[in-house]
């Protein structure tokens, strides 16, 4: 097998031609990548040059560093993924990245999470993606592109028919851009996962939820929707559920960190009695309480046989609701993952979930609690398992794609690149 071009040497040459010093962090990561010649030939490689790396010394990437890096990657066919999260790239860096995206034909995955890219940078990247025909997964999480930046991405989606997963969470999107994205996705046939978490909304009328619901009635491609921190209440839950009675594609619904109460969950429970598509439902950090948990448990015990994962952590549920959920798992064999930490445990609850784990009905890696005994009494401790524990950070002690901490990947609604 012939040896592929040496990325590290090419990077040093690019720095010399641009008359700028090398970034030692980039140099080190390219040297590490050069050791995997076999992987380059067979699968391609993802360059992980994340600024929050705690294993090796980090000098975060600047716009000038990125210029030298993309000069190397421009003619490299075996780099199929680029992870640049938690660096200090600005709109000037976005200019270099946009040019790279226009000319590159091998990159499938790009992570620009939590840089300093603003509206102008969003415009450049979105316009580049109108011409790019290879990128499948773009993560812009945490870049404050604002409402106007969101509009540029909505315009891009009107033209781009390749992108499968787009993450615009924590990007300060506004009502106008959310409605535009929902409108564009209505007939879209390539985007399979969209993250619209934590927009900046200045109305309590839930107009954005209404438009997302209208989109779901028609869209037959989307399988994963993240709708966290939209201040959703009963009206929004009703609109979404009305749409999901007609939708036959959505498998992963994230409604965590909203204002969903016990009465609102009854609407979701009624949906679960008839829905045959949803596999993952994330209701973490709402306020469904005991009554809401009982509604869900009744639907799961008697009717639903498709939901595989339910997250209800931090919902002010006490013994009555948690015991109902544990009982539902005795009759529903499809529900395999359940996350309950942050609720109110008593000894009966601890005993019930301890028995589920001891009997093998609930696998230890499929929940976020672990039983232990002290002086003859049973307790539950928290363990670092969940649907997406590593969404914002990369652990130094384990792989960031660990399936126990990121169960949504193991269930495979939309696989990570």
Automatic annotation (TrEMBL):
It holds the Pfam family LRR_6. Keywords: Repeat. The keyword Electron transport does not apply. SUPFAM superfamilies: RNI-like. InterPro entries: Leu-rich_rpt (IPR001611), LRR-containing_regulator (IPR052201), LRR_dom_sf (IPR032675). Coiled coil: none annotated. It comes from the Eukaryota. The keyword Hydrolase does not apply. This is LRC34 protein. It comes from Crypturellus soui. The lineage of its organism: Eukaryota, Metazoa, Chordata, Craniata, Vertebrata.
């Amino acid at each position: 097998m012939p040896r592929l071009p040496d990325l590290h040497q090419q990077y040093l040459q690019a720095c010399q031609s641009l008359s700028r010093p090398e970034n030692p962090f980039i140099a080190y990561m390219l040297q590490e990548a050069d050791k995997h010649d076999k992987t380059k030939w067979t699968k391609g490689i993802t360059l992980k040059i994340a600024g929050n790396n705690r294993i090796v010394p980090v000098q975060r990437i600047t716009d000038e560093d990125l210029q030298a890096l993309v000069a190397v990657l421009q003619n490299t066919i075996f780099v199929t993924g680029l992870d640049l999260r938690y660096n200090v790239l600005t709109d000037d860096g976005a200019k270099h990245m946009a040019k790279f995206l226009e000319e590159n034909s091998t990159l499938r995955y790009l992570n620009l999470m939590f840089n300093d890219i603003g509206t102008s940078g969003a415009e450049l990247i979105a316009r580049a993606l109108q011409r790019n025909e290879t990128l499948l997964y773009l993560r812009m999480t945490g870049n404050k592109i604002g409402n106007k930046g969101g509009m540029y991405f909505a315009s891009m989606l009107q033209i781009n028919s390749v992108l499968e997963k787009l993450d615009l969470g924590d990007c300060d999107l506004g009502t106008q851009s959310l409605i535009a994205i929902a409108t564009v996705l209505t007939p879209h046939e390539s985007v399979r996962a969209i993250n619209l978490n934590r927009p900046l909304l200045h109305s309590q009328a839930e107009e954005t939820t209404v438009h997302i619901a209208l989109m779901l009635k028609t869209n037959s491609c989307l399988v994963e929707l993240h709708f966290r921190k939209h201040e959703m209440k009963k009206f929004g839950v009703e609109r979404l559920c009305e749409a999901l009675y007609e939708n036959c594609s959505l498998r992963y619904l994230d409604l965590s960190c909203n204002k969903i109460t016990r009465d609102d969950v009854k609407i979701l429970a009624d949906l679960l009695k008839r829905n045959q598509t949803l596999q993952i439902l994330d209701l973490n950090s709402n306020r469904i309480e005991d009554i809401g948990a009982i509604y869900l448990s009744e639907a799961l015990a008697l009717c639903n046989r498709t939901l595989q994962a339910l997250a209800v952590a931090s919902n002010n549920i006490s013994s009555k609701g948690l015991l109902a959920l544990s009982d539902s798992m005795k009759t529903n064999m499809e529900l395999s993952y359940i996350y309950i930490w942050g609720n109110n445990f008593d000894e009966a609850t601890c005993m019930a979930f301890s028995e589920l784990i001891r009997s093998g009905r609930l696998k230890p890696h499929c929940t976020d609690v672990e039983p232990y005994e002290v002086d003859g009494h049973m307790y539950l401790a928290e363990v670092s398992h969940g649907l997406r524990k590593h969404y914002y950070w990369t652990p130094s002690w384990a792989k960031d794609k660990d399936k126990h901490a990121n169960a949504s990947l193991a269930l495979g609604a939309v696989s990570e690149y």
